[in-house]
Amino acid sequence: MSIHAVSMSTYTPRDVPLPRAPSANYFSELQWKTLYALADAIVPSIHTAATAKSSNDRVVSDAEWNSTVSSLSMIISGPDAVNIATQYLQENVSSNPQFRAIVERLMGDYVHDEGRNGFGLIMTALNTRTGSLIMTGSTTPIQDQPVEFREKVLHGWDTSRLPPLRAIYRGLTAIVKKCWVISSPTIGPVLGFPRVPVHGRPADGFQYEFLQFPPGDQPETIETDVVIVGSGCGGSVTAKNLAEAGHRVLVVEKSYSYASNTFPMGPNEGFLSLFESAGAVSSDDGSMAILAGSTWGGGGTINWSASLQTQGYVRQQWADTGLPFFTSLDFQKSLDRVCDRMGVNEEHVEHNRQNRVILEGARKLGYAAKTVPQNTGHGEHYCGYCTFGCASGGKKGPTESFLVDAAQAGARFMEGFCVEKVLFTQINGRKVASGVQGTWKSRDSYLGLGGVAAVERNVIIKAKKVIVSAGTLQSPLLLLRSGLKNPQIGRNLYLHPVMGASAVFDEETRPWEGSALTTVVNEFEDLDGDGHGVKIESVSMMPPLFLPMFPWRDSLEYKLWAAKMRRSTSFITLTKDRDSGRVYPDPVDGRCRVSYAVSAFDRKHIVEALIASAKIAYITGAREFHTVYRDIPPFIRPEASDPEGPEGINDAALQSWIAELRRKSPLNPERCLFASAHQMGTCRMSKSPKLGVVDPDCQVWGTDGLYVVDASVFPSASGVNPMVTNMAIADWASRNLARAMGTGRGEGRMARL
Fold first, then answer.
1. What's the pLDDT tens digit per position in 526-558?
2. pLDDT-based confidence at residue 645 (cuts at 50, 70, 90)
3. Which helix (H) or strand (E) holds 583?
4. For the FAD-dependent oxidoreductase 2 FAD-binding domain, which residue ranges apply (predicted)?
5. Are strands 582-585 and 592-595 parallel, antiparallel or unpaired?
6. CA distances (Å), 24 to each of 279, 445, 654, in order?
7. Structural domain boundaries, residue 577
8. pLDDT for 2 beyond 60
9. Which one, out of 44, 210, 580, 665, has a CA that is 20 to 30 A from the CA of 138?
């Protein structure tokens, strides 16, 4: 029976408890009042003069109200469309307790001190006569002004000559948009977006067992052969290979495991439980939003199943840096081996509407394009919700493949264990890794619950080999906390920066249905003759991932545009970046900070991909084409134009829009939001310690017994979705390590000392 024949309409995911919310006293009551007054200007309650109740309501004329409700009702359709449209327009964000709770948690737990203090300073200044006059043109506090006035102030900040005001505009609009989409009770009915996918069926996942510790004041000590820090793509493959070779393996993960019956999580629970810093990591300048997995299975739990092997020209580039392994048959065998284990295939791929748009548009334009293989165990997997966890188990990421194999081979697991440092001993003047030390929090302790189950312990793990697989953002920070001084640690950060775009059609597309990313356009992957360029793909169309990317220009316009998502398809411009950045620890609390700006060189390539995406949208009949760049208005197809007309993409209106975009190339990075779901390179593999962090065997230069196996070892950007490359490097390195360690002697399970 096809999986499509079984509906998930009767399935309700189990609720996921959230950790205790932080205190909101980092802002005063007046600062919060000011911040929420600005939030009400970004996503205001829309009314006519007859229904407006306060200065927080944006008033429109009766004619504009009727026109807006009519437009929304046509999008929503159905007998209750007018009522749904009215509730949507009149929704007030600041009166929604969930919106407030999400904002307060985000600001309290995930915005670094420097950013939070900046917000607080501006909110305070707005409540002084001088500060208010400078920033708003009036001495009246902004929260006492009509919402229309506040909106004009925000527009002024957007183009202000004062960098702090521009930064506050970018940060505040980003936070409010995201928190509104997550918490809104009306946007789901407007979009027709269901809580769970309508295709597929839930399935029970593998039942993992995790080490538990009793309360105690003294450190708990464990002895094992190999400790692996991180359960993601690299760590899971390494665990399987070393456990199957007979070694005692302990995989530790700072985050927690969730049963498949909690998937797909709702957006609030999903961001908090599955993503690094609740999906709120950004570059220091605010121009780059960074999504990385932080859960059992790492990025393999939240990614979109794309399983592309490393391309030949990239392998050759890496080999030319003194790493011949990448052009060897051994590397190809590792690529094939990990793909075989996950059941990577094209045969069972069924393209949803947005992926069909890309394929058909590319065909009509003569662009090189192909189907993206999926890690679906040679089965059907028509689901676009897996970025918040796969309920069906159809996506064969680490938790459904390599970690299962590791468990069956005797590996042990710890969740909730934050490794503070790698331990070393000195032998003949060499630093030899001897284990790790950190803090373990039981699940109840993490959730802030009481009782005997709420335990927090200092744990020391003694091991013969230490494998760091904490991801590109965290692995270099662990090396730095452990006292390593190589100046290359944390540098050479590549992010595959993307800009988003959206095509709007006359008919409903329901873009969240079906696999998120099953096509790729390769036509523009080499724009400089040296392998740097852009691929065009689609994005997961979960509303809280998709809608906040796009610019806020006007409060009513943003609500109207958001409603069009049910008629939209997406494009992303995945860039093989030439120029890099770095990660480093925050000087106050040590959390990951990212210094990265998309270079003019790479931004020019992105413009070419945006133009190609607009042509694809046009030739497939899209009515509108939107980008995340604030200074270029959307392309609106003239009523008289015909996508099947003889001129095709030579249409004068389209060419005029393209010419305007080219004039703005390479695009001002302050005027858009880039995003990254791929992080690479911060512990770069190299032929010498002057050029990188790990040697060709993935062992950290200047140490013995310490290895890094994750995407941080990539010599440069991979140019394709990095999961398979990451796994193949881990497969090769761990097999070599297993041979070097010899066959496990069967000394039994790890010891608690």
1. 999 999 999 999 999 999 999 999 999 999 999
2. confident
3. strand 582-585
4. 225-262
5. antiparallel
6. 20, 21, 49
7. 498-676
8. no
9. 44
* 516 and 378 in a common domain: no
Q: Amino acid letter at 224?
A: T
**Alpha carbon distances (Å) from 377 to 310, 399, 477, 672:** 20, 13, 35, 38
Q: What is the pLDDT of residue 642?
A: 77
CATH code of the domain in which 308 resides: 3.50.50.60
Could you write out the DSSP letters of every residue in 237-296?
A: HHHHHHHHTT--EEEE-SS----GGGPSPPHHHHHHHHBGGGGTEEBTTS-EEE--B-ST
**Residue 366 in domain:** no
Q: Tell me the C-alpha distance between 277 and 258, whole Å.
A: 17
Domain boundary among 645, 676, 707: 676
Query: Do 689 and 651 sit in the same domain of this protein?
Result: no
What's the CA gap between 284 and 170, in Å, rounded? 12
Q: Which residues, in sequence order, are bridge partners of residue 661?
A: none
pLDDT of residue 4: 41
Same domain membership, residue 178 and residue 299: no
Pick the catalytic residue: 112, 381, 626, 678? 678
Measure Cα distances from 56 to 52, 156, 174, 282, 357 in Å: 9, 19, 20, 30, 41
Cα-to-chain-centroid distance, residue 604: 23
Residue 1 lies in a domain: no
Burial of 24 (0-12, 13-18, 19+ CB in 10 A): middle
508 and 595 fall within a common domain: yes
Q: What does the pLDDT look like over 422-475, one tens digit per residue?
A: 999 999 989 999 999 999 999 999 998 888 889 999 999 999 999 999 999 999
Q: Which of 712, 679, 692 is nearest to 596 (CA)?
A: 679
DSSP element (H, E) containing 313: helix 312-319
Model confidence pLDDT, tens digit, residues 319-361: 999 999 999 999 999 999 999 999 999 999 999 999 999 999 9
Residue 483 CB contacts under 8 Å (≥ 6 apart), including other chains: 421, 424
Residue 390, domain member (yes or no): yes
Q: Do 477 and 592 sit in the same domain of this protein?
A: no
Q: In terms of domains, do 662 and 703 share one?
A: no
CA–CA distance from 421 to each of 399, 417, 459, 478, 571 (Å)?
Answer: 26, 12, 11, 6, 41
* 703/630 same-domain check: no
Segments of 2-115 assigned E as strands: 45-47, 57-59
CB 615 within 8 A of CB 365: yes
DSSP secondary structure string for all residues of 331-352:
HHHHHHHHHHHHTEESTT----
DSSP 482: T
Q: Does 468 lie in the same domain as 438?
A: yes
Is it the case that residue 734 has pLDDT exceeding 90?
yes
User: Residue 735: which H helix or E strand, with range?
Assistant: helix 723-741
Asked whether the CA dihedral 436, 443, 16, 187 is positive or negative, the reply is: negative
Structural domain total, the chain: 3
Count of helices and strands (H, E) across the chain: 23, 25
Is residue 678 annotated as a catalytic residue, yes or no?
Answer: yes
Backbone dihedral angles phi then psi of residue 244, each to the nearest 5 degrees: -70, -20
Tokens representing residue 16 in the block: 């996921």
Helix, strand, coil % over all residues of the chain, rounded to 5: 40, 15, 45
Reported as type and span, the H/E element at residue 730 is helix 723-741
Taking all residues of the chain, what is their mean pLDDT, rounded to a whole number? Answer: 95
pTM score: 0.96
Q: Are 657 and 646 in contact (CB under 8 A)?
A: no
DSSP 8-state symbol, 584: E
In the DSSP assignment, the letter for residue 4 is G
Looking up tokens 């121009």 gives 287
Stretch 143-162: mean pLDDT: 96
Residue 514 lies in a domain: yes
Residue 5's pLDDT is: 42
